[in-house]
């Protein structure tokens, strides 16, 4: 079954080199079968796109902080408390459930019922659910005594969880989150069974066939719901990765629209109907996940449906005196936010399926050479964030000097290294300028250094003509490599080249620049320049540059 396609948000605006390559896709651009449960694809399967799946890097709190958040989830805390209460052992029934006499005390223990008085049926249901989770998480082990009694015995993990051991707590939470994620998509069988029961009367064979048909229908509905929920979580993961702090909350309608509306299109009437259907379908599933702290969720206001039945305007404009919806009006249609715990959970599921799900700061662990190499070679990276983490661990002048030294070279990635180095040093102020002043006569870094120093108002001479031309080629090559052929970005750069009224003279100098990307840069200018005369001269120069490279 083909997965839903969705509108990928544009993160490239203003992002410069952080933008993902045009030929790469983020996880939610793939259907469930391709992303989860398919650790790769058969090389002989030509029907699947071999485009790389990119997972945006995220920042997570320390594990101790995540573990504290997990222990603060009521259902987790209740399960741990019940497991401790079972010590040294607790008699259970043949199914492993609490016996009837223990249900009231257990409910009082975890705060579901008052110390005095009767225990409500709702409290009993909840305590049995918490006990069931304790069993599912292996916090208690079920067994039988020599006398034939069924008992539950607490496991060692209970003490570790109570002590807040991050590894233990997060393993417990992740297991619980997986269970809730599966239960959230369970289809209600009552309606289907009721319809089939009403059609009975055809004998055992007919009843069996009807039962098989109902089962197949239920399985298909559950698979579709699971696919929808996973895609919604993928989109939330991506949105949260790129969101500014405090802006991670997403209206439920926006989330549904990202799953329905193709990129660059406006929703039509049919799409609007699909968006509404998805909002209604996602709402209870997200509520289940919110119970484990995976998301923060404000459900759809049920009064909206009553207003619609009564003929009252229930759209986003409802309740706004001037026709513009207020934030509260919009919130009535549901809000959702992926929590740090939710980010942790989705990332762990991605990693379990063999996908690279980086953390911000992963590349900042080594020296400047390792940092720049990672930035240049990794397609799913946020360079500014990585550089910030790296520089935060060093004195500014020391960091600037290390970056400049590591950006030298004429290998395939060297222009990109210099681009990221320039961006990093540009924001270091006086320390950055001090490091730049030390390399103004460097054959590879001098043009970059003089350019930045003059931009910062420093009294330094412009680069000599050969150095300036080399810098032009180097910068163009970096944009060409990082943009992966982004025509719009390249056309802007091509239009800004300092071509004089005599393009033959300019390109006559440029093709002689001893840079490994000179020919590729000239080829690009020849393809994209809007002035035919300029484009022609660039192509001629590219031919000469290739000939020179061949002779060399």
SSE arrangement:
Elements (H helix, E strand, L loop, with lengths): L31 H4 L27 H9 L2 H12 L4 E2 L8 H10 L11 H16 L3 E5 L5 E5 L1 H7 L3 H19 L5 H9 L5 H39 L7 E2 H9 L8 H23 L3 E4 L4 H7 L17 H5 L3 E4 L1 H13 L15 H10 L5 H10 L3 H11 L7 H13 L3 H8 L8 H10 L9 H19 L3 H9 L7 H8 L7 H11 L3 H20 L1
Antiparallel strand pairs: 1-3, 2-3, 4-6, 5-6
Q: Features of this protein?
A:
552 residues; mainly alpha; three-stranded antiparallel β-sheet; elongated
Q: Round the mean pLDDT to the nearest integer and report it.
A: 84
Structural class: mainly alpha
- If strands are numbered along the chain, what order do they take across the biggest sheet? 1-3-2
Rough shape?
elongated
**DSSP strand count:** 6
Q: Please give the radius of gyration in angstroms.
A: 31 Å
Which spans have pLDDT < 50 for at least 5 consecutive residues? 1-51, 194-201, 315-321
Largest sheet: 3 strands, antiparallel
Distance between the termini: 55 Å
What can you tell me about this protein's structure?
The protein is mostly helical and 552 residues long. Among the domains are: 63-175; 360-462; 464-552, no CATH class. Helix content is 56%, strand content 4%. It contains 25 helices and 6 strands. It has helices spanning 32-35, 63-71, 74-85, 100-109, 121-136, 156-162, 166-184, 190-198, 204-242, 252-260, 269-291, 303-309, 327-331, 340-352, 368-377, 383-392, 396-406, 414-426, 430-437, 446-455, 465-483, 487-495, 503-510, 518-528, 532-551; strands at residues 90-91, 140-144, 150-154, 250-251, 295-298, 335-338. The strands form 2 sheets. The protein has a 3-stranded antiparallel sheet with strand order 1-3-2. Strands 4-6-5 form a 3-stranded antiparallel sheet. A hairpin with a 5-residue loop joins strand 2 (140-144) and strand 3 (150-154). Helix 4 (100-109) packs across helix 5 (121-136) and helix 18 crosses helix 21. It is elongated. 34% of the residues are buried. The model is unreliable at 1-51, 194-201 and 315-321 (pLDDT under 50).
């Amino acid at each position: 079954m083909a997965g839903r396609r969705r509108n990928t948000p544009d993160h490239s605006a203003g992002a410069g080199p952080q933008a993902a390559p045009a030929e790469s896709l983020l996880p939610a651009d793939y259907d469930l079968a391709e992303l989860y449960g398919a650790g790769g694809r058969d090389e002989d399967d030509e029907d699947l796109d071999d485009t790389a799946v990119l997972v945006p890097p995220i920042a997570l709190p320390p594990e101790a902080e995540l573990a504290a958040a997990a222990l603060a989830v009521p259902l987790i805390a209740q399960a741990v408390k019940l497991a401790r209460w079972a010590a040294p052992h607790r008699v259970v029934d043949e199914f492993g459930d609490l016996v009837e006499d223990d249900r009231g005390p257990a409910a009082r223990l975890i705060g579901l019922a008052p110390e005095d008085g009767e225990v409500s049926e709702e409290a009993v249901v909840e305590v049995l659910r918490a006990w069931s989770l304790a069993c599912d998480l292996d916090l208690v082990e079920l067994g039988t005594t020599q006398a034939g009694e069924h008992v539950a015995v607490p496991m060692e993990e209970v003490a570790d969880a109570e002590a807040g051991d991050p590894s233990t707590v997060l393993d417990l939470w992740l297991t619980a989150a997986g269970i809730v994620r599966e239960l959230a998509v369970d289809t209600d069988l009552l309606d289907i069974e009721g319809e089939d029961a009403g059609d009975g009367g055809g004998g055992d064979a007919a009843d069996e066939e009807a039962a098989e048909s109902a089962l197949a229908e239920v399985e298909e509905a559950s698979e579709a719901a699971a696919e929808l929920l996973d895609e919604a979580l993928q989109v939330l993961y991506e949105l949260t990765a790129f969101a500014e702090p405090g802006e991670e909350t997403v209206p439920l309608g926006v989330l549904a629209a990202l799953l329905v509306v193709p990129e660059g299109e406006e929703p039509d009437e049919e799409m609007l109907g699909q968006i509404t259907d998805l909002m209604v379908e996602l709402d209870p599933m997200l509520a289940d996940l919110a119970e484990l702290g995976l998301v923060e969720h404000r459900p759809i206001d049920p009064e909206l449906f009553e207003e619609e039945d009564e003929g009252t305007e229930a759209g986003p404009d409802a309740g706004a005196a001037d026709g513009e919806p207020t934030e509260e009006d919009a919130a009535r249609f549901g809000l959702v936010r992926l929590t740090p715990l939710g980010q942790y959970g989705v990332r762990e599921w991605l990693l379990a399926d063999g996908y690279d799900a980086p953390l911000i700061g992963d590349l900042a662990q080594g020296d400047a050479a390792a940092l720049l190499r990672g930035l240049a070679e990794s397609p799913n990276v946020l360079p500014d964030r990585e550089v910030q983490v790296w520089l935060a661990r060093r004195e500014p002048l020391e960091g600037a000097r290390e970056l400049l030294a590591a950006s030298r070279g004429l290998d395939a990635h060297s222009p990109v290294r210099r681009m990221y180095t320039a961006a990093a040093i540009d924001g270091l102020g006086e320390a950055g300028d001090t490091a730049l002043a030390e390399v103004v006569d460097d054959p590879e870094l001098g043009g970059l250094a003089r350019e930045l120093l003059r931009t910062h108002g420093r009294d330094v001479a412009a680069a000599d003509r050969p150095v300036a031309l080399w810098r032009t080629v180097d910068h163009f090559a970096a944009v060409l490599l990082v943009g992966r052929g982004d025509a719009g970005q390249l056309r802007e750069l091509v239009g800004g080249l300092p071509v004089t009224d005599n393009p033959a003279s300019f390109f006559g100098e440029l093709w002689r620049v001893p840079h490994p990307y000179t020919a590729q840069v000239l080829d690009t200018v020849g393809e994209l320049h809007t002035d035919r005369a300029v484009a022609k001269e660039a192509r001629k120069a590219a031919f000469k540059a290739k000939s020179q490279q061949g002779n060399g």
